[in-house]
Amino acid sequence: MTGASIAPSEIRARLAAVQTRIRTAEASYGRAPGSVGLLAVSKWQAPDKIRTALAAGQAAFGESYVQEATGKMDILGGPELQWHFIGRIQGNKTRHIAEHFDWVHSLCDLKHARRLNEQRPAGLPPLTVCVQVNPDGEPGKAGLAPAQVADFVAACAELPQLKLVGLMALPAPMEGEIPKRRPFRALRLLRDRIATPELPLPMLSMGMSADLEAAIAEGATLVRVGTAIFGPRTG
Ligand SMILES: *Cc1c(COP(=O)(O)O)cnc(C)c1O
């Protein structure tokens, strides 16, 4: 986790450029100004880079590997940091996730949901969660089939230590605006179908470095951006 040499000034410039992309896309696609948040994906990036982004005003960071993330939390500490787990959940790691993270974007197994609910320490606010969907049914990829999502959401809503706020997707990279937008639109339409007044599911966690504009066009409320901010990952 040494990180490619990328100067703090370059990280600040890249972060500002991503913010500009987000604001520009909001304006282009008729989204309210400030309605799209930025999660800085810091997996396989050195703690120094996170520190630089934090000092520049970025507070929410996404990590995919529990051990790597908790190591960084020990180094960086600080209540001003918000940690989002975006990786594949392993059954034997749910306790660490429940104890150390603020958000989970990748929930798609009811067994994991029940464990996170049980293991969330009582002194902490409920764990904020998004349900991961695999809108194109890509084989081998995490996420629920669209037809499973309504029942899953209803079951999760019964778990008091989870706060279910929306859906997440990680579609395959595509070329061209229309192909890029299609899975994001599918996620939004699915959300619109299953949302209820009691459970409005306002968050759509979708869009990354290469396709955040397409995701914002289709209603993303939180884009997850790694390499465009921090440069290439160095595991
Ligand atoms: C790595 C990762 C990202 C960030 O991808 P970039 O292409 O570096 O922006 C976003 N979401 C998830 C779930 C990831 O694993």
Chart the SSEs and their pairings.
Blueprint: H1 8-28, E1 37-41, H2 47-55, E2 60-63, H3 66-76, E3 82-85, H4 94-100, E4 103-107, H5 110-119, E5 127-133, H6 149-156, E6 162-169, H7 177-194, E7 203-205, H8 212-217, E8 222-225, H9 227-230
Parallel strand pairs: 1-2, 1-8, 2-3, 3-4, 4-5, 5-6, 6-7
Helix pairs in contact: 4-5
The structure holds pyridoxal-5'-phosphate (PLP).
Describe the structure in brief.
This protein has 235 residues and is α/β, with parallel strands linked by helices.
Number of helices: 9
CATH topology label = TIM Barrel
Main sheet, how many strands, which sense, barrel?
8 strands, parallel
**Fourth CATH level, the homologous superfamily:** Alanine racemase
Identify low-pLDDT runs: none
Mean pLDDT: 96
What proportion of the residues is helical, as a percent range? 40-55%
Give the topology string: H per helix, E per strand: HEHEHEHEHEHEHEHEH
| Bound ligands | pyridoxal-5'-phosphate
The CATH architecture can be given as Alpha-Beta Barrel
β content, as a range?
A: 15-25%
First CA to last CA: what distance? 6 Å
What is the CATH first-level class name?
Alpha Beta
